[in-house]
Each structure stands twice: as C-alpha cells, then as structure tokens.
Amino acid sequence: MKLKNKVLAVLLTMALVGVLGGCGKSNNASGNAGNATTEPTQAATDAATETPAATEAPSTDNLSGTVTITGSTSVEKILNDMIDEFTAANPDVTINYTGTGSSAGIADSISGANDIGASSRNLKDDEKTSGLKEVTFAYDGIAVAVNPANTLKNITTEDLAKIFSGQITNWKDVGGKDADIVVVSREGASGTRSAFEELTKLEDAGGLTENATVVEGNGNVQTAVAGNENAIGYVSFSYIDSTVKALTVNDVEGTPENAKSGKYVLSRPFLFVYNEGKASAAAKAFVDFSLSDDGQAFVEKHGGIKLDK
Fold first, then answer.
1. Does residue 236 share a domain with residue 158?
2. Are 92 and 231 found together in one domain?
3. What is the pLDDT along the chain (309 residues), one digit of tens a residue?
4. Burial classification of residue 200, based on how many CB atoms lie within 10 Å of its CB (0-12 exposed, 13-18 middle, 19 or more buried)
5. CA 174 → CA 164, 206, 252, 255, distances in Å?
6. Is residue 51 domain-resident?
7. Could you tell me if 102 and 249 lie in one domain?
8. Does one domain contain both 124 and 206?
9. Which of 49, 122, 159, 202 has the fewest beta carbons under 10 Å from its own?
C-alpha cells in the first residue's frame, strides 16, 4: 500500500511538471507573438515620422543656372552691385550683364536673346504689344552735364531743345561766354537719349543736330564733357562727379528727391523686362531681389531713386 502511494506521488509530480512546462511554452509563445506585433507598429511609426521630410518642397534658395541681362548702361553701376550681392548668396548662379542700350535690351527680350532686358525708359507702344512683363525697380534723373569751367548754372528745357537741335550754337546766347557749343549725345539705342529727347520735346525742335558728337554709354558722355570746357551732354545722375558739373533745369536742382516728386522734369524709370512664361527661377529671383531692401540699397548708393515701400 505504501509502495502504491509512492508511485502515485511520483506520477502526480511528473504530471504537474508537464503542465507547468506547457504553461511556460505557452507564455513564451504569447510573448513572442506580442513582440511580432510590436515591431511592425514601431517601424510604421518611424516611417510615418519621415514622410513629411521626404515630401517637402525643394528650397527656393537652391538656385542655379546662367542669367543673361542686356540693355541700359544707365543702370550699370547699380546692376553690377546687385549681381555681386545676389551671386554671392547664390553661388550656383552666374549672371552676365552687357550694356547695349535700352532699345537693344528690349529687342533681345522680345526675340529671346536674353533672359532679362534692362531699360532706362518706358516701353513704346509697339514694344508693349510683345507681351513682355515690365518691372520698375528704380527711378532716375537725367543730369545736364557741362565742364566745371563753364560759368553757366541754369538752363531751361526750351533752350536745351534749341541747343541739341542746333538752333543755338554759342554759349553767349544762353548766358555763357562767347564760345561755340559742343553738343555730345548718346547713340540711337540709348534709353537715356530717348527719354531726354522726349522730355525736352527735341523732335518738335527739329531733332538732334547733325553736328552733335554721338557716343555710346554714359561714361563716354561724361569723359567727353570733362575733356572739353565748351561741351554739353546728358547723363544719368549716378555719372555726375567732380569731373563734370550738373546744371539746374528750369531753376530746379537735379536731386533724387526733386526727381521723385516731379519738380525736376528730366526723370524716368528703370525697368526690367522679360518673358514671364520662359524666365528661369534664377531670373525671376534676381528681379525679386532688385525690389528687396538689399537691392534698393544699391539703387540709392549709386544716385538712383528708390521705390516707395
């Protein structure tokens, strides 16, 4: 009887061990199953976190490419500084600017030969029909330049028309000394010339005299006037320095403030023109930069008239 009881005890112990072992396996399997469901959930969470970064729009700061600008020489100093600043901030962008005159720059924009045309005059009616986008980035005054040795201080727009048309040929007829007037004008494509002739109504006086010395660029006008005490020419405000003297016009000094207010009659806009549908991101970004505070600082630095904010 005792032996039988011992055998039963052993059998019960073995059965209990088996049950406990089975429970352990069941618990481990359950744990593994839990781990299997947890890991994909975490991976899915990680993937969801990364999705916004993957779909973010590319930064507009990452500009690249070459932008070709042709046109007005009146904006040369302003543009050169703008270009240096813009390309320093966008090293993958190259901007090539060539001063060819406003009309040439506008024509290049119409034909697609450039990315941006620079103009120092308003577009003519036939140019406006080409569909170009116009952006005014500054205003400028046209200074009447004479040699510092010239004693004259003021001139009227009427007398300017007579001088540049050849009706007045001696300085004494406008209050100066007895000496022949040397007229210096710009080339036909010049926006400065177009604006000057329009504002002085030169065509009504007969147009530019055939005796005029015609040169390309504001700098060459400045040099010609500086080298001849009897010369007279017209240049952008930014080209007036110690080598030439600016006359008042209709008794109004040629200052940015007077030009912006309209008191000084010889003033005009500075424009960028371009084909909006074909312009690159870099070209559009440069135009936008010209309107920014940083861009406008260069307008003011070189004697131009900033836009009103």
1. yes
2. no
3. 443 444 344 443 444 444 444 444 444 434 444 443 333 333 333 333 232 333 332 344 689 999 999 999 989 999 999 999 999 999 999 999 999 999 999 999 999 999 999 999 989 999 999 999 999 999 989 999 999 999 999 999 999 999 999 999 999 999 999 999 999 999 998 989 989 999 999 999 999 999 999 999 999 999 999 999 999 999 988 899 999 999 999 999 999 889 888 899 999 899 999 999 999 999 999 999 999 999 999 998 987 899 986
4. buried
5. 13, 19, 17, 23
6. no
7. no
8. no
9. 49
Q: Which domain holds residue 153?
A: 141-267
Instruction: List all residues 6 or more positions away from 13 whose beta carbon is below 8 Å from its beta carbon.
Output: none
Give the integer Cα–Cα distance in Å for 120 and 122. Answer: 7
Kindly report the number of other CB atoms within 10 A of residue 8's CB atom.
10
- Spatial separation of the C-alpha atoms in residues 206 and 184, rounded to whole Å: 17
Handedness of CA 75, 146, 122, 264 (dihedral sign): positive
CA distance 132 to 160: 33
Is 120 within the bounds of a domain? yes
Give residues with Cβ within 8 angstroms of 261, minimum separation 6: none
Number of domains observed in the structure of the chain: 2
Please indicate, yes or no, whether residues 108 and 208 belong to a single structural domain of this protein.
no
CA distances from 66 to 91, 96, 240, 280 (A): 11, 8, 32, 9
> What is the CATH number for 294?
3.40.190.10
**CA–CA dist 279, 197 (Å, integer):** 32
